[in-house]
Amino acid sequence: MYAIIRDRGMQYRVEQGQVLTIDLVAHAEAGAELELGEVLLVSDGEKVTVGSPLVSGAIVRAEVLDHVKGDKIVVFRYRNKKRYRRRTGHRQRYTQIKINEITI
């Protein structure tokens, strides 16, 4: 059984027991339970339920495992012949969740 969910503009294909990395959910602490209600599609192997745009009554429950940081991205700005160089970095913050249950 799998479902396609939407979380703040991003779509994910999830299955029960899967560990997923999504954008930071700041209000959720580790061990908390999330309900992802924007379910676009649910398939249980033989029957596929497609929403228009959402499947009514479908909920995906997930447990927050941890908050992690992504890889560092180096941003380097340079102006030719002007002695202008700026090196900065960025690490995006993510939330790791584990999908516990998909209900229709």
Mean pLDDT: 92
Fraction of helical residues: under 10%
Supply the helix-strand structural class: mainly beta
Helical segment tally? 0
Helix and strand element order: EEEEEEEE
Q: What radius of gyration results from the CA coordinates? A: 19 Å
The total domain count is: 1
Strand order of the largest sheet: 2-1-5-6
Major sheet size, sense and barrel closure: 4 strands, antiparallel
- Give the total of beta strands: 8
GO molecular function: rRNA binding; structural constituent of ribosome
Organism: Candidatus Chloroploca asiatica
Protein name: Large ribosomal subunit protein bL21
Function: This protein binds to 23S rRNA in the presence of protein L20.
Protein architecture, described:
By secondary structure, this protein is mainly β. The protein has one domain (2-103). Helices cover 0% and strands 67% of the residues. The strands form two sheets. It has a four-stranded antiparallel β-sheet, with no helix packed on it. The chain has a four-stranded antiparallel β-sheet with strand order 3-8-7-4, with no helix packed on it. Strand 5 (39-43) and strand 6 form a beta hairpin. The relative contact order is 0.30. One of its GO terms (biological process) is translation. Belongs to the bacterial ribosomal protein bL21 family.
Structure, briefly:
This protein is an all-beta fold and 104 residues long.
How do the strands and helices of this protein lay out in sequence?
Elements: E1 2-7, E2 10-15, E3 19-23, E4 33-36, E5 39-43, E6 48-50, E7 59-79, E8 84-103
Antiparallel strand pairs: 1-2, 1-5, 3-8, 4-7, 5-6, 7-8
